[in-house]
From TrEMBL:
Protein name: 2-C-methyl-D-erythritol 4-phosphate cytidylyltransferase
One Pfam family matching this protein: IspD
GO biological process per UniProt: isopentenyl diphosphate biosynthetic process, methylerythritol 4-phosphate pathway
PANTHER family tied to this protein: 2-C-METHYL-D-ERYTHRITOL 4-PHOSPHATE CYTIDYLYLTRANSFERASE, CHLOROPLASTIC (PTHR32125)
Transition state stabilizer, annotated site positions: 16, 23
Family: Belongs to the IspD/TarI cytidylyltransferase family. IspD subfamily.
SUPFAM superfamilies registered for this protein in UniProt: Nucleotide-diphospho-sugar transferases
Key word Nucleotidyltransferase present: yes
Keywords: Isoprene biosynthesis, Nucleotidyltransferase, Transferase
EC number: 2.7.7.60
Length: 228
């Protein structure tokens, strides 16, 4: 039986958020934001181990006590210049443990509202899938293309368009190969697509938001509070 592992890239600086420290360490309901992200993953009985990939010069991780998250958690200080590099380095750290056919779930540190139901949907829909896939939601708004002066140049059809989320779940060996061949991607699915393979879109939920701008942090707090 293949096992399931998680990689959490957490080496970003949060430049769009613009806080005094990387957004993954900002306080969310009294805990660092990333605590909620990691707690959702370690609580999943089907996930054997979780690697969190920190920036080599991260000075925040050591300020907190993570013992509550248990023994599944491993940290590596090998974050790279891009998200894809951080993920590739996390996969390398998992090499001693993961086999080619094991599943890897890559999940953004900055998505703290991942729920057990979302993970269950991903596991259920991908269990027998030959490629793997991602959580995603259909685009709900009308899409406008801007011109250079920020006026509408065109209205784009949104049929068939989905917004990619994480976790993104693929076989360990194939994901390593995909990222070695194609690292100019903003998500793991992009690298798998570059191999000519079609990842499955598993319908997720807009509450699995990525904290990118300050308003997202308040939304995440509301979402998590509403679940208690
Ligand atoms: N070199 C990088 C860049 C990003 N990430 C991680 O990838 C996830 C998604 O990235 P994003 O939301 O873009 O985070 P930041 O890069 O921190 O944000 P920004 O682009 O605004 O600087 C985050 O968990 C982030 O920590 C990473 O591990 N290594
Ligand atoms: C992987 C991702 O979460 C999918 O939506 C997203 O692309 C990561 O954020 P970034 O801003 O592209 O780094």
């Amino acid at each position: 039986m293949p096992r399931h592992f998680a990689i959490v890239p957490a080496a970003g600086s949060g430049s769009r958020f613009g806080a005094e420290k990387p957004k993954q360490y900002l306080s969310l309901l009294g805990r660092p934001l990333i605590f909620h992200t990691l707690a959702a993953l370690v609580a999943c009985p089907d996930i054997d181990r979780v690697w969190v990939v920190l920036a080599p010069d991260d000075s925040e991780w050591g300020r907190y006590d993570w013992s509550e998250l248990g023994a599944k958690l491993e940290t590596v200080r090998s974050g790279g210049a891009t998200r894809a590099e951080s993920v590739a380095n996390g996969l390398q750290a998992a090499a001693m443990v993961a086999a080619e056919d094991d599943w890897v779930l890559v999940h953004d540190a900055a998505r703290p509202c991942l729920s057990a139901d979302m993970l269950a949907a991903l596991f259920h829909e991908l269990a027998d899938d030959p490629v793997g896939g991602i959580l995603a939601v259909p685009v709900a708004d009308t899409l406008k293309r801007a011109d250079a002066s920020q006026r509408v140049a065109a209205t784009e059809p949104r049929d068939g368009l989905w917004q990619a989320q994480t976790p993104q779940m693929f076989r360990y060996g194939r994901l390593v190969e995909a990222l070695e061949k194609c690292s100019a991607v903003t998500d793991e699915a992009g690298a798998i697509e570059a191999l000519g393979l079609p990842p499955k879109l598993v319908r997720g939920d807009t509450t699995n938001l990525k904290v990118t701008y300050p308003a997202d942090l308040a939304l995440a707090a509301m979402i998590l509070r509403g679940r208690k």
